[in-house]
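Lab notebook page, bench 4
Experiment: in silico fold of construct C2
Operator: M.H.
Input chain length: 370 residues
Purpose: comparison with the prior construct
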Amino acid sequence: GDPRHEESRSGGETPLFRQSCRLWCVYSEGVELSKLSELQRAIPLPAQSRELVVGRTAQPAIFWDTLVPDRRLHGTVSREHFKVFQHDAVPGGAAQTNFVLLCTSLNGVLLNSKYIGKGEDERVLQHGDVIAFAASAESTGGQSGGMRKPFIFFSFEVVRVEVVQGPPLPSLPPSLPAPPAEAPAPPQAVRGAGEGGSQLRPPENTVAGRWRSHDAGPSVPEDAIFCLEVHGDQVRMDLPSEARQLFFCCEVGAAMLPKLRIGRNYQHLFWERVLAPAVLNGDVWASVMAVDQFEICSFRRSNPTTAERQDWRFRLHVLGAAGVTVNYSVVCNAGDGRELQQSDTLSVGASADCGAAQRAPAAAGIGAPR
């Protein structure tokens, strides 16, 4: 590295960070996202800028050619489809950064499944919001008047970037991604992420959770907040319940809590263990479990700096096009959000009619760690 940079760090300077944002593609029709690099899936806020323009001419042509290979859908992405602005507000004297979305396309955009048209008021964005492009039926050769069909989804993510002070060094970019506050602990007694060939790390500010190894006992990680216990007709129910549990763990006093991101490859080694081989070896699993299927956000009701007993609430955010069925009856589509309660059941690959529980390849019950 550059010696001047190393010297400034060794001198005890505390690095400064600012909030930024990016859009992370979580679903694109006909595209296997797991085979793409981060650069092919992410649209970051440009360094030293407070405006992110998204559209066919705002990003390199190869970016949209990769994510939207269908030329009919490609044409529904406007040159400048929407913009994200960064605003600094000072409520009560405390500095705060807000991000807002403004639609600039006649084709509109979907924010958490709600349509926003050109010229409508700005919408405030929150970390984890889902922004989707949708095509009308006539634009894809269907009958006019049909419902708009989303074909590509982006998750809005708030990230921290380092502010480099002083004149920029030739060998360094204007800003560097901030290191995580604490490296995520490896799964408790679990195989390494490099084994199996298909295990992927989840995006920034999300975690894949932890699970026990085959020879681990029933002990629960001390920092576990909740667990998902997997069951279903296509699940190896011969395994003890402890072997089918996926834990969300974090430091209770952490300033920012990550989200538990569930997907086909983030827990690949776990799925290999708990699912029937016929499911993983066929096309069923890929059709119902996307690379990014859903995530669970955790919130504290109580103040983490006090001695109060922690009171948690949880919210489901659906990302995959196949959706998630809650308690065998409520279908949540991509972009939908829903509050979760202890003992709720989340199913993938199930419809909301009678018998969905039997047809779901896998379901998971949310509960307190035991």
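Observations: The chain has two domains: 14-163, 206-367. DSSP finds eight helices and 22 strands in the chain.
Next step: discuss at group meeting.
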